[in-house]
Amino acid sequence: MSAGLELKDVTIRFGGLKAVSELSFSVAPGELIGLIGPNGAGKTTVFNLITGVYTPTSGNIHFDGVSVPGKKPHEITRMGIARTFQNIRLFSSLSVLDNVRTAMMGELKHGIVHSLTRGPAFRKQEALVEKEALELLDIFGLADARDKNAKSMNYGDQRRLEIVRALATRPKLLLLDEPAAGMNPSEKEDLMHLIRFIKERYNLAVLLVEHDMKVVMGICQRIAVIEYGCKIAEGTPKEIQCHPKVIEAYLGVSVES
Ligand SMILES: Nc1ncnc2c1ncn2[C@@H]1O[C@H](COP(=O)(O)OP(=O)(O)OP(=O)(O)O)[C@@H](O)[C@H]1O
């Protein structure tokens, strides 16, 4: 079993609907892979299968050689897989800093006694968490907003905060679900730089679901295309752009956008 993520013949049925059908693909450590397809093709369902929200009806998912199906989402996070969501999910009543701190909670080693007494070990750990959270916010240009209410930030900043929260769990694989949605062209340009930057800086593998073809074609090393839950093509951005099945299913007009 190889390192990284490996899906083998993964199928999930919802009643009579096969949302994902015998899907196989892999993401090696450090790779930046795109997963694209028309609306309803099954992309978010694939993320939900990888992160333990759904269990496949059949097929296997392995991460670093360990079987994923049957594990709980928090166990999968601990294995080193983090995700963002199509619809932003932040703690709206918490500050920007506290949103990152809560994401780091899983890493805290102190027990209930330390938490209640707030002893030296607890305070040391808290200080470390705050330092790391601020470092991450700084990299994303969000440090000045640390005390702002998360929901008061503009849309692009909220999307970036979601990525910070995912990174705060120290993943080896980051799943990004439509990170460019709702961004303007200059925010999308920044996002492309940011994804490349964090991939290098944190030695991350990234699986990117994204409708914006300029973003996908601009940063992905390889792209898998699904339609009605089935993989119809896989290749480099250049190969995908001229793949007849892809053009027919999906890319025809949007690749020029
Ligand atoms: N829990 C569920 N129960 C029933 N059907 C579901 C469930 N989750 C997803 N589906 C169906 O599976 C199919 C794939 O949905 P999914 O959200 O994965 O597509 P997508 O490629 O992410 O779409 P989009 O690009 O519009 O976000 C759709 O037909 C959807 O209605």
Automatic annotation (TrEMBL):
InterPro entries named among the record's database cross-references: AAA+_ATPase, ABC_AA/LPS_Transport, ABC_transporter-like_ATP-bd, BCA_ABC_TP_C, P-loop_NTPase
SMART domains (UniProt xref): AAA
GO BP field: D-alanine transmembrane transport; L-alanine transport; L-isoleucine import across plasma membrane; L-valine import across plasma membrane
GO molecular function, one term: L-valine transmembrane transporter activity
Gene Ontology cellular-component terms listed: plasma membrane
One Pfam family named in its UniProt record: BCA_ABC_TP_C
Keyword Nucleus: no
CDD domains: ABC_Mj1267_LivG_branched
Gene3D superfamilies: P-loop containing nucleotide triphosphate hydrolases
Sequence ranges assigned to domain ABC transporter in this UniProt record: 5-253
Record's keyword terms, sorted: ATP-binding, Nucleotide-binding, Transport
Stretches assigned to coiled coil: none
PANTHER family in the record: AMINO ACID ABC TRANSPORTER ATP-BINDING PROTEIN, CONSERVED COMPONENT OF ABC TRANSPORTER FOR NATURAL AMINO ACIDS-RELATED
Stated name of the protein: ABC transporter ATP-binding protein
